[in-house]
Amino acid sequence: MMPAATIKAGSLPLYDPRLLQELDWSQNGVTFSPAISPADPGDGLVLRPLCVGDINRGFLKVLGQLTETGVVNPEQFTKTFQHMKSSGDYYVTVVEDTNLGQIVATATLVIEHKFTHSCAKRGRIEDVVVSGECRGKQLGKLLTSTLTLLSKQLNCYKITLECLPKNVAFYKKFGYSVSEENYMYQRFFN
């Protein structure tokens, strides 16, 4: 189980941290060496929901190692955080280095409600990134395993993700397979 003090007092979590505590880690099919888990991600590390105060703990800096974040002021961050929280469909999960008080990794699970499959839910993993100085500690693997199990716990009928061709082998370790469908998009701004 995760330590009870994983969320700092006065810092609002995006979702209920008990969801992470209740994960059945025995369902995880990926090997970790050395062994780590959501309850014990490594020395001085805590895996937890994103908190509104994480804007001051380097969350956007880590996310910026994956993609363009733009300039985000605290008011914009809080407004988007509150929107995500009130929808109940966003599970932005972070790893915090408690010695530094900094976010060192993050990934997002988004739940999409469907009319298909008897009004089922589909999970989608996005924005998996580990800070450059923390790569090699299995944190991307831990976040992916955690969010995959969380989507199952939330009764999603399937979970998907998009990745670069060079990352396909990494995600196959978790049971993901390459779809026959093509991913297409239109970009309206950077």
Largest sheet, in brief, is: 5 strands, mixed
Percentage of β-strand residues? 15-25%
N- to C-terminal separation? Answer: 40 Å
- Strand arrangement across the biggest beta sheet: 1-2-3-4-5
What is the average per-residue confidence, as pLDDT, rounded to a whole number?
Answer: 91
Distinct helical segment count: 6
Proportion in helices: 10-25%
Low-pLDDT stretches: 1-6
The radius of gyration over CA amounts to 16 Å
**What's the count of strands?**
5
* Topology as a string of helices (H) and strands (E): HEHHEEHEHEH
What does the overall shape look like?
globular
Structural class: alpha+beta
Structure description:
With 190 residues, the chain is α+β, with helices and mostly antiparallel strands. The protein contains six helices and five strands, in the order αβααββαβαβα. The chain is 25% helix and 22% strand. The chain is globular and about 40 Å long. Mean pLDDT is 91; it is low at 1-6. The N and C termini lie far apart (40 Å). The chain has a five-stranded mixed sheet with strand order 1-2-3-4-5, with helices on both faces.
Topology record:
Layout: H1 18-21, E1 45-49, H2 59-63, H3 74-87, E2 90-97, E3 102-113, H4 116-119, E4 121-130, H5 139-153, E5 156-161, H6 168-172
Parallel strand pairs: 4-5
Antiparallel strand pairs: 1-2, 2-3, 3-4
Characterize this entry briefly.
With about 190 residues, the protein is an alpha+beta fold. About 25% of the residues lie in helices and about 20% in strands. Strand 2 and strand 3 form a beta hairpin.
